[in-house]
Structure formats: structure tokens, C-alpha cells
Amino acid sequence: MASKKWGQLFCTASASSMERGSPAASASTVRLMTTRWSLWPWRGAAGASEYATGYAADILAADSLEENTGFADTRAYEWLSAYAAEYGFILRWPQERQAATGMVFEPWHWRYVGRDNALAIRASGLSLEEYLALEQTK
User: Fold this and answer.
1) 95, 106, 110, 117: which sits with the fewest CB atoms below 10 Å from its CB?
2) Is the pTM of this model over 0.90?
3) How does the average pLDDT of the chain come out, rounded?
């Protein structure tokens, strides 16, 4: 299911950007990291990271091919921020939620959580961890 959604997100981003004449977004690169192993204890056991589950991917653009915060200044990031939730994706490590997540801002790291959850998380302004904690109190 997540891999199909990744494809839909990528195709829609590409089509949308081409209609607007955005070469940066139309040449976007989605790297599905299904074979990436966990290197840090908080990401879980080897093979159990968000990447290995297929729910996470690093998304970069032709004008920003390195995993750094410069991606946040691209048109591709602007498009993802505006539309990814409609396809079920959230920015996994938002800049304004670093204290809550314990992770540094990674504008290239996106996670599939389903459309309804993604829209609710975006509307709340919370991180995934905060949103889940809030939902457990209901």
C-alpha cells in the first residue's frame, strides 16, 4: 500500500510541477530506502527502521541532491509541504518539533501515515509522536 502511495505522490508532483513549469520539482528524485539498515538505537533493530518497513523515504530534488537542510529552500519541498498530506505523507522530523521528537530537522525525510492521519497531523501542527500521544488520551 505504501509503495503505491509513493508512486502516486511522485507522479502527481511531477505532473503538477510540469504544468507550472518547475524544472526543479519535475526532476524530483524519490529514493525508497527499503534496504537501508538502522544505524541508531532509536530507529529500532536492523531491518525495522521506517525505511525498511517501506513507510519512509528520502525525497530530494534535482537542484538539491544532498540530504541537508538546503532542501527546505527548494520548490519541491514547498510542493511537498503543501500537498503531501493529501496523499497520506507527513514530514517526519519537522524543524519546529525538534524538542518533542529529539531529532534534528530533516526536510527530505517523509513518512506515510495514511491520508486521514496526515491531514490531522498537519492541521494539528504536532509531530507524529505528539499526535499519537494526544490520540491515546482520547
Assistant:
1) 95
2) no
3) 76
